[in-house]
Design goal:
Layout (H helix, E strand, L loop, with lengths): L24 H29 L4 H27 L5 H9 L8 H24 L5 H7 L17 H22 L9 H20 L5 H8 L4 H28 L12
Helix pairs in contact: 1-2, 1-4, 1-8, 2-7, 3-4, 3-6, 3-9, 4-8, 6-7, 6-9, 8-9
Length: 267
Amino acid sequence: MSDPKPERPVEPTELAHTPPSAPATSAKLVAEVFGTLLLVLGGVGTAVFASNHFTDTPAAVYTAVALAFGLTVVVGAYAFGPVSGGHFNPAVTLGLAAAGRFPWREATGYIIAQIVGGAIATTLLVLIGLFGPANWLTTAQDAGFASNGFDAHSPAGFGMVAAMIAEVLLTGLFLLVILGVTHPTRGTPFAGLAIGLTLALIHFISIPVDNTSVNPARSIAAAIYGGGDALAQLWVFIVFPIVGALIAGFAYKSLFDVTRTGAPIGR
């Protein structure tokens, strides 16, 4: 028996809550370039400009540099994080992959984008310096261009082992904070602020030790213009932040991402 009052067909419409499509890989990589550029421009830029201008107030420079790195991460996380996740740091990318939060297959692209972004940032700083006061750029480069270092290149004279320990420890703690505040079920909408404040705290702790890396892209970017000694010591600030991040990533997965039954969360 046919329906005496059949309903007219209605064209399907997109639901208001339909999630948008994921950003393209190219968009993610561009976001990582810009986010890392912002981080290095803000942090290293503050270091090279302030330290060469406010020579009589080192405590103020110290504070400004720590806050600059923290603030740029806060801004970058909210500006570019929704596109790429807001890593801006090869150690963070690898630590997230170790924790099962990021695909290993995408890590190489992210790391290349981060290194490119950092290098562009320090190149822009050099370009500004070329049109600065006489001998400004030479002085900044002779001082290492805010590069990381140990022994004679440590702000307070700490040795290589101290730098290694600091980079492993502080990068590991940084990753634990990131993994905690961005957790898919236990995270917070204030994750960007928490991460930025943690990075500022890390700089307050370790600027005197080795000028604070916890980010190989930042270290590479500064060493490009920091001279031969900065390049010779660069390997420490590539290897040991990554070691700390990997330890933290694997540790977080086994220590915190488990249920009462012992099974990893999400399985």
